[in-house]
Write a structure and sequence with these properties.
- By secondary structure, the protein is α+β, with helices and mostly antiparallel strands.
- It has one domain: Thiol Ester Dehydrase, Chain A.
- It is built from 5 helices and 3 strands; from the N terminus they run αβααββαα.
- α2 runs antiparallel to α3 and α4 packs antiparallel against α5.
- The longest helix is centred in the middle third of the chain and has 35 residues.
- The termini are far apart.
- About 10% of the residues have low confidence.
Length: 190
């Protein structure tokens, strides 16, 4: 048997490969290469039952990178909670046409800030990953936190009771708003 390849057969094989190889290449996006980071996806996103936040920190010192990531993630959780409560408060006060709506909204916002500035007992770290880059000598830390919405709303109700600046009427309105949100969060968590 002769295994010599004819020049015509070789040319046909090269042509076939050159036509089919571009089809095998992955298509690049005009935006660039997709980057996959730790703690991305539905499991790490807020939903009807949970406030969740992720953070990233970079530093030549590992503990500083971790601190930056913690602050970043906690700020995300606080911003989501604040935005959620503001929207709910505005909607509630708009529907009830409360005479002192501005005062209630202002005191509610103050309460939110105070609660978010306090370490919440139910805030849980659900993940942490640390990477070291030999080239740049930097640490990159990723963290993810979550807090149950109903637990946070209950905590807010408790904190409101310790707030001496709120009238009985304001406390009643705040309780109604938070009770509605607790019911929604509990229904979503089931």
């Amino acid at each position: 048997m002769n295994f010599r390849t004819s020049p015509l057969l070789l040319a046909a094989a090269v042509l076939a490969l050159s036509v089919s190889l571009p089809a095998c290449k992955s298509k690049s996006s005009p935006a660039g290469t997709k980057v996959t980071q730790p703690f991305s996806g539905n499991k790490y996103e807020s939903n009807a039952a949970w406030f969740r936040g992720t953070g990233q920190g970079v530093s030549i010192k590992q503990n500083i990178a971790r601190g930056k990531a913690d602050i970043d993630a906690k700020n995300q959780v606080a911003a989501q909670a604040g935005t959620n409560i503001r929207a709910v408060t505005d909607q509630y006060l708009g529907q009830t046409e409360n005479a002192n709506a501005a005062d209630v909204a202002d005191k509610f916002q103050t309460l939110i800030r105070e609660v978010m500035n306090t370490e919440l007992a139910d805030l849980r770290k659900i993940g942490e990953e640390t990477y070291y880059n030999e080239t740049t000598k930097d640490y990159t830390v990723y963290v993810a936190y979550e807090i149950k919405k109903n637990a946070m709303f209950r905590y807010m109700k408790k904190q409101a009771r310790t707030e001496a600046k709120m009238s009985e009427q304001e406390l009643k309105v705040l309780d109604e708003i938070l009770d509605q949100e607790i019911k929604k969060a509990e229904a979503a968590g089931e």
